């Protein structure tokens, strides 16, 4: 479920900002999420806005039910994509759009770029089919800023090997993640004005210096 981490009350606030974090498993998003959220809350407070942290798949009661199915059960790649977008439609309608309309800022751990990367790049599902679903489910809605944590496949593999029991995506092969990363980078090249790429190889302090620079632009 989403988590409101700061607050403000101002009826005249402008539409909120939508920020997403992306990257292959092992890229380090989770390590930096709370720190980034805290710093983002400081930026949002300048506009008397709240920051709402959420994630995909999930973010709503229905989304979390679908998340358990998606992470644990094997299924056809098109079924997987349809369930991802079903969860996303609910997420947008019940959480993201209402929050942005109120003037709140939304920080989501993954959004549509992940579907293009994992189901499109990793599993080889038609990008054209995903574009149709993207337009149908979210219309013109896109993040104001997408932070992509990027690192070589071997480094991500090493990090994943130290993690908890993996879900079905974390258990995928290096070839799968090579394709997934390539699709993330393709998406970045298509919309450079929206993406900010983080070199996630270095130590935490170095990554956070890069994140600080991004925060200054929001």
TrEMBL record:
Xref: InterPro entries: Thymidylate_kin-like_dom, Thymidylate_kinase
Domain named Thymidylate kinase-like: residues: 21-210
Transmembrane intervals: none
Alphabetized CDD domains for the sequence: TMPK
GO CC aspect terms: cytosol
Keyword Acetylation (UniProt): no
Reaction(s) catalysed (UniProt annotation): dTMP + ATP = dTDP + ADP
UniProt key word Methyltransferase: no
Keyword list, A-Z: ATP-binding, Kinase, Nucleotide biosynthesis, Nucleotide-binding, Transferase
Domain of life: Bacteria
Top enzyme category: transferase
Entry's Gene Ontology BP terms: dTDP biosynthetic process; dTTP biosynthetic process; dUDP biosynthetic process
Alphabetical list of HAMAP family matching this protein: Thymidylate_kinase
Membership in a protein family: Belongs to the thymidylate kinase family.
Entry function: Phosphorylation of dTMP to form dTDP in both de novo and salvage pathways of dTTP synthesis.
PANTHER family xrefs: THYMIDYLATE KINASE, UMP-CMP KINASE 2, MITOCHONDRIAL
Name of the molecule in the record: Thymidylate kinase
């Amino acid at each position: 479920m989403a988590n409101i981490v700061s607050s403000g009350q101002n009826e005249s606030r402008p539409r909120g900002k939508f920020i997403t974090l992306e990257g292959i498993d092992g890229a380090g998003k989770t390590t930096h999420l709370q720190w980034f959220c805290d710093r983002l809350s400081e930026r949002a407070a300048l506009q008397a806005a709240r920051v709402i942290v959420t994630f995909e798949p999930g973010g709503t009661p229905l989304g979390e039910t679908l998340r358990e199915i998606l992470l644990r059960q094997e299924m056809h790649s098109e079924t997987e994509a349809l369930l991802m977008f079903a969860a996303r439609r609910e997420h947008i309608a019940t959480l993201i759009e209402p929050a942005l309309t109120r003037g709140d800022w939304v920080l989501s751990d993954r959004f549509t770029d992940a579907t293009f990367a994992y189901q499109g790049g990793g599993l080889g599902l038609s990008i054209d089919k995903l574009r149709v679903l993207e337009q149908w489910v979210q219309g013109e809605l896109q993040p104001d800023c997408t932070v992509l944590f990027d690192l070589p496949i071997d480094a991500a593999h090493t990090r994943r090997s130290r993690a908890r029991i993996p879900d079905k995506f974390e258990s995928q092969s290096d070839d799968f993640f090579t394709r997934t990363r390539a699709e993330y980078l393709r998406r970045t090249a298509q919309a450079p004005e929206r993406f900010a790429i983080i070199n996630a190889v270095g130590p935490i302090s170095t990554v956070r210096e890069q994140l600080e620079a991004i925060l200054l632009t929001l």
